[in-house]
Amino acid sequence: MILVFLGPPGAGKGTQAKLLSQRMGFLHLSTGDLLREAVKNQTPLGKKAKEYMDRGELVPDELIVQLIEETMPKDGNVILDGFPRTVNQALALEEMLKDKGEKISKVLFFDVPDEVIIDRLSGRRVCSKCGAVYHVKYNPPKVEGVCDLCGGTLVQRDDDKEEVVKKRLEVYRKQTQPLIEFYQEKGIIYKLDAGKGVEELFEEVKGLVRDG
Ligand code: AP5
Ligand code: ZN
Questions:
Q1: What is the distance in A from the centroid of ligand 2 to the CA of 160?
Q2: Residue-wise pLDDT tens digits, 84-129
Q3: How far is the CA of 134 from the centre of ligand 2 (A)?
Q4: Domain annotation covers residue 132
Q5: Residues 6 or more apart from 82 whose CB is under 8 A from it?
Q6: In terms of residue numbers, what domain contains 7?
Q7: Which of 42, 152, 186, 194 gives 112 a disulfide partner, CB atoms 3.0 to 4.6 angstroms apart?
Q8: 143-185, pLDDT tens digit by residue?
Q9: CA 79 to chain centre
Q10: Which is the closest atom of ligand 1 to the Cα of 15?
Q11: Closest by alpha carbon to 209, among 79, 115, 81?
Q12: Is 23 domain-assigned?
């Protein structure tokens, strides 16, 4: 089963994808996480991607499509989190899956109002060591500033600074939002009210996954 998680920055896609992967065994493929790892390790991809990410812009389609081609497993249950993000990426994914005789099962659209996005992104903290995601209000660590899982220091993501968030939202509206209609026409998109709490939202996600 191949699921696509689509939605604005900070909608909670990564949080739900992690739960689905921990509790139902899905492989969580996040282009954002893969890119941040590449930046951290200063790989050739990371060096090219960094400037776009720092500005809140999308990394060029060809780099992303190549990244997905390299990491997409041959089979099994997969969540694509943050990919595709442009119509060109969606078309490339279609081709890639067609070659393997597969297709997207469902696109889950995480719908949230702008105030919620700002609130979630401004309070997000991530572990500098293991990448675990926290929120100062909604999912605080046991000890302030310290990761529960590995003891690493919690930091704010560079692109969660206010000016970059504004740009990411603008880029989302221009380049990613058209995918909603693209997938509506295919009849495979399901809208979720992602303003709900984490567990309540997970129940909805689980329901959609169980229905096949
Ligand atoms: P990426 O990492 O994908 O960023 P994004 O889409 O902006 O998504 P986020 O990670 O910000 O949010 P999320 O929806 O996962 O929310 P989360 O669960 O963390 O991409 C970063 C950059 O990489 C892009 O700008 C681009 O440059 C590049 N990139 C990536 N993919 C690309 C692609 N395909 N093409 C081109 N470029 C690409 O939750 C947010 C916060 O809210 C957390 O603190 C969390 O604890 C909290 N929270 C979550 N759910 C809830 C809830 N239900 N209630 C209360 N709090 C909650
Ligand atoms: Zn950690």
A1: 18
A2: 999 999 999 999 999 889 999 999 999 999 999 999 999 999 999 9
A3: 10
A4: no
A5: 5, 13, 14, 30, 31, 32
A6: 2-113+163-210
A7: 194
A8: 999 999 999 999 999 999 988 999 999 999 999 999 999 999 9
A9: 9
A10: 18
A11: 79
A12: yes
